Amino acid sequence: MKCEVCGREAESRFCEAHEMAYRNLKGKYEEWRSAMDITWEDYLREVLKNPLTGVWVKEVAEHLLSKSESPDSDRGDVAT
Ligand SMILES: [Zn+2]
């Protein structure tokens, strides 16, 4: 399997670095969502606008935005 973002050899859909970035993104989104009314896509756009966002995280965010993928779609269940 290859990382969807960088094409490196990976054990899952992302390589280790992008997998970690993806988890960070999802974890932070939970925080943001509990503090304000924000959709996943708006959140990703905010992340991309933030100059403090790391390059790995931005690459993952860009990738997810281009696919319009929700954070729960890889689990097959619906978060409430
Ligand atoms: Zn990667």
Describe the structure.
This protein is globular. The N and C termini lie far apart (31 Å). It has 80 residues and is mainly alpha-helical. The chain is built from 3 helices and no strands. 54% of the residues lie in helices and 0% in strands. Bound molecules: zinc ion (ZN). Zinc ion binds at residues 3, 5-6, 8, 14-15, 17-18.
Average pLDDT, rounded to a whole number, is: 90
- What is the number of E strands? 0
Q: Gap between N and C termini, in Å?
A: 31 Å
Order of helices and strands: HHH
DSSP strand (E) fraction? under 5%
Q: So what's the overall shape?
A: globular
Helicity level: 40-55%
Rg, Å, rounded: 12 Å
Write the layout of secondary structure elements.
Layout: H1 16-35, H2 40-49, H3 55-67
Helix pairs in contact: 1-3, 2-3
Bound molecules: zinc ion.
Residues 3, 5-6, 8, 14-15, 17-18 line the site of zinc ion (ZN).
Which key phrases capture this entry?
single chain; 80 residues; mainly alpha; 54% helix; 0% strand; globular; disordered C terminus; binds zinc ion
Quick recap:
With 80 residues, the protein is mainly alpha-helical. The chain has helices at residues 16-35, 40-49, 55-67.
